[in-house]
Design brief:
Length: 373
């Protein structure tokens, strides 16, 4: 029986800056989803990571189902009303359009969906990241689905060993979805050549080559491509099916020990090491650090179990200490070089004005001679 998993998330306001949504805001989102979803949702789960609220839903509709998208939009509107009433910071921040037009894609919220032929046992993972953008998942996807140094299933399991097809999106192309399908292991170097540039090329989905089944779906929204100005980082969500024909849950989690440097952090304009955190963790140091949570679910006939909190385990305490040390080292050099994002990725317009303001004060060699004469 087919079931569709949809996760839609947005930043609609938070307590004390960009730290976390309020309990009342979450309640309003929860109530709207449970009331409005009675007729067509099988199940739903609502949680937060940093200042972002994620709504996970299961249903029998297709990917992009208008009722499901409208429900999430309405829930975020209800949450925004509470955010305004409580004076939360950035109320309705990610709701970039005034009226709903059938699908929340391109309206601000991040969306990852997959329609699956439910297996007799169906484990999947919900990743949600804050203070970073969708390219943050490039390296973990590459390592879990294409690198046997991390993912032993690629050499130990015949089905996993058939490899995976990566659909990679060029997120700089805003006129439409520009994608390429590349298969590991044959196209490994081409995949690596694209995924290294995490601001331009982003894993959109991954499929098993053994069965054609979908394994991964990532939200690929770039907010500043929609709004044309800074509105916050894109704070991506990702769904990953695990076990059997796919990498094991632990193989998908393994790359997150690296704490790789990602774009985001303070004012969406810096690099920081991505820290795996338990669910419902807020942000702190330097409006960060960039964080990622992972909830593991099992699903039967579309009904979810309670989530198992994958990064809430003693193993990750050591990882978090190491990841903090990485960010600390980079923060010590303030705005210099790789600590801050390149000019094209800076999300605050102020520096553009600053550079423009200096334009007339620059002199070329020739003018200098004239000026000196
Ligand atoms: C990053 C983020 C924060 C804000 C910062 C300044 O995603 O949301 O780092 O950029 O707190 O916020 P404003 O400019 O709204 O005062
Ligand atoms: Mg925010
Ligand atoms: Mg956020």
């Amino acid at each position: 029986m087919n079931v569709t998993l949809s996760v839609i998330k947005a930043d609609i306001g938070s307590v004390g800056g960009h730290i976390r949504p309020s309990a009342k805001l979450l309640e309003a989102v929860r109530e709207t989803v449970s009331e409005g979803g009675k007729r067509f949702l099988i199940d739903a789960y609502i949680g937060f990571t940093g200042d972002d609220v994620a709504i996970l839903m299961s249903h029998r509709g297709r990917v992009g189902d208008a009722r499901v998208h409208k429900l999430a939009w309405d829930a975020f509107l209800a949450g925004t009303e509470v955010a305004k009433a409580q004076g939360l910071y950035g109320a309705g921040q990610d709701l970039l359009k005034d009226s709903f037009s059938g699908n929340v894609k391109g309206m601000g919220p991040a969306v990852a969906e997959m329609e699956v032929e439910e297996r007799p046992n169906e484990p999947f993972l919900l990743f949600a990241a804050d203070k970073t953008d969708p390219g943050a998942y490039n390296l973990p996807c590459y390592l879990a689905f294409a690198d046997p140094m991390v993912s032993s299933g690629l050499i130990l399991s015949p089905k996993v060993g058939k490899g995976f097809t990566f659909r990679i999106m060029d997120v700089a192309h805003t006129e439409g979805d520009r994608v390429i399908d590349l298969s590991a292991p044959e196209d490994l170097y081409d995949i690596a050549a694209l995924l290294r540039d995490q601001e331009r090329f982003v894993v959109e989905s991954i499929r098993s080559r053994a069965t054609g089944e979908i394994a991964v779906s990532v939200s690929t929204t770039r907010l500043h491509n929609i709004a044309g100005k800074y509105t916050g980082k894109d704070d991506p969500v990702m769904l990953v099916r695990t076990q059997g024909n796919f990498p094991a849950t632990g193989e998908v989690l393994a790359p997150f020990t690296i704490g790789h440097f990602v774009a985001g952090f303070m004012r969406g304009s810096h690099h920081g090491a991505l820290m795996p955190v338990p669910r419902n963790t807020g942000t702190s140091f330097f409006d960060g650090p960039p964080i990622v949570s992972c909830l593991a679910f099992s699903v039967k006939n579309g009904k979810f179990t309670e989530p198992a909190d994958a990064f809430d385990h003693p193993y990750w305490e050591y990882v978090r200490t190491r990841v903090s040390a990485k960010s600390e080292e980079l923060r010590r050099q303030g705005f210099f070089g790789p600590a801050m994002l390149p000019y094209s990725e800076l999300e605050y317009g102020g520096i553009v004005d600053r550079l423009k303001g200096m334009e007339s004060r620059f002199r070329t060699g020739k003018e200098k001679e004239t000026a000196g004469a």
